[in-house]
Give the backbone structure.
Amino acid sequence: MQASAETLAFLRDVRVFEAFSDSDLTVLIERLRARELRRHQLLFREGDGGDEMFIVRRGTILISKAVTGKVEQVLVRVEPFDFFGEMSLFDGSPRSATAQAETDVELLILGRDSLQAMTETAPHAAAKFFYAMVQVFMERLRRSTLQVAEATRWGLEATGLDVESR
Amino acid sequence: MQRPAPAKFELLVRRDDDSDFELRQVPSVVGYLNSRPRRVDEGSYEISELRSRLTVAPAFILKNKTTERFLLLSEQERFLWDQMDGATALQEIATAYVLKYGEFDFEIIPSLLRKLQRAQLLTFEPRSRLRAVLARNRGRVLVKALELALTALERIRISSHNVQTFFQGLYRYGGFLLFTPVAMIACVVLAAAGAGAAHILFRDVRDMLEGFGGHALRGILTVKLLFFASVALHQFVHGLACTHYRRRVREFGFTFLHGFVPTFYTDVTDIFMASRRARFVTAATGALVHLVLGAVAFIVAAKAPAGSFTQAFAAASGIIQWQALVVALYPFCFIEMDGYHILVDALGVPTLKHDAIAYAKSLLTGAGRLGEGREELLWIGYVVLSTVSVAAFIAFNVWIIVSATH
C-alpha cells in the first residue's frame, strides 16, 4: 500500500500505533493492505481460519457470536480507528466470532507475515505495538466480564426472579 | 440510587439464505412480559377463603403443601393466581386484570410474583408449547422443516409505530363522517337493502354462481383473496374509532398470527383508558365494514344480469363479507374476535374462553363436577354455543360449495 499523508494521519490516531514515529508508520503502511466491504457483507465467520487483524478506517463492523440457529449475539461494534481479529494474528487459531459490515466499510489489513517482518526490521516499533496490544487485551477482558454480568442481569429481569429476598 | 436502565441484548438474525441479516434489540422487559408464570401442580397447594366478621373485603389463604408455607392473598391477587396457568403471558394477565378491576396499579403483579416465588409456588414456562415441542424434536427432518417454516413466517412483520399522525389526518379529512348519525342510518339502510337482495339471490344459489362457469371453487377462492384487502379496511376503522375517542393508535401492521394466519392488525390498547362505550364502538365499528361491503356486493349481484360473472363474483363476495361480519361479532366461536371482547367486557369476565374450556375439560376427564352456579352455567353455555356455532358455520360453507359445484 502506498503511504499517503491521509493514511499516515489516520494511523497516528489508531491506539496500537500511537507510539510509532512517522518513519515507523511509513514502513508499516507499506506492509498494510486495504479492503472495502459493502453494507452487510460478511468478512469472516466464527471457526474460519485466519492470520490477519483489521483496522477500521471508515464505517462500522459488527462482531457477533452464534447463539442458536440463525441468531447471533452482537458482542461489539468496531468503529473507525479501532481494530479486531488480532487473536488469530498472534496464535493462528480459528476465528472466535463472526465479523460483518454494518455499513459500507473500508479496512486496513495487517497480516502475520507483515508483523513478523516488522518485528525483525523495526523491533523498537514492534515492542511499542505489543505493549499497546497487551493494554487493549486487558481492557477487552474487563469488557467481557461486564458483558457476562449484563447477561445475568437480563436473565434476572426477564424472569422477575427475586434473588435478594431468598 | 438511580435505577439502571433495563438490560438489553442486541441480536443479529440471519436470513435463510445467509446473504443478509437484521438487528434486533431485545430488552429484558420484553422477555418478562412474554413469560408465562405457572403455579405448582394442583395437588401441591390448597387455597381457602378467609372468613371474618370484621373485614369486608374477601381474603384467601394459599398453602404450599410441600413446604408448609402460607400466604395471605387479596381478592385481586387470588384472581391473578388463577390466571397463572403456564399458558397465559404476563401481558395477557395484566390486560385481564384491567378488564376485571379497571385498575392500572400493575405493581401488584410483580409483587405477587415475588411473593409466590419465595413460597416456591411458581415456575415459568416457555412462550409457546408448540415451539417447545418442536425444539425438543428438532432432530427429525419434518419437525425441523416445520420449525423453519414457522420461524420464517413469524419473521414477516411489516408494521409502523408512527401511525397516530396518519390516523389523525385520515379522521380529520373524512374519517369522522363514519361516526355520525347519518353514517349509522346509511349503514342500517344499506344492511336492509343488502339483506333484501341476498334473500332474492338465495332463492337459487346454483343459478347465482353459474357465472363462474365450471370453476366455482376457483372463483370463490379468488373472492377470498380479495376479501383479505377488506380486513385491512376493518383494521383502519378500528384505528379511526380509537382516534375518534382521542386515544392513541400505537401500531398498524401485517403479520402471520401464530406463524400461519396472515392478518392485518391495529394496536388500539390505549382505548382501555377510555369509557366502556368507547371500547364497544371501537370493537364493533371495524366489523361493520364487512356489513357495508357485503350489502353493497349483494345489491350489485341482484342488479347484475342473472348467471353473469359479475353476479357470481359479487354474490360470493357478499357471502364472504357477511360471514366475516358474523365471525367478527359473534362471540361464541372459540375465537377472541371483536364480539368476544365486547361480551367479556360487558360481563366483566375477561378470561371467559380460557375458564370455560378448562371447566369443560375437567368435566370430560372426570376431574371436575357439574355445578349449578352462575359461573358454571356461563362456562357450559359458552362451550355448548361455541361448539354448535362452529359446526353450523362449517356445515353452511360445505352447503355453499356443494350447491355451487353440483
Q: What stands out?
A: The domain at 8-125 of chain B is CATH 3.90.930 (Outer Surface Protein A; domain 3). Chain B is about 55% helix and 15% strand. Chain B has a mean pLDDT of 81. Residues 81 and 243 of chain B are 35 Å apart (CA to CA).
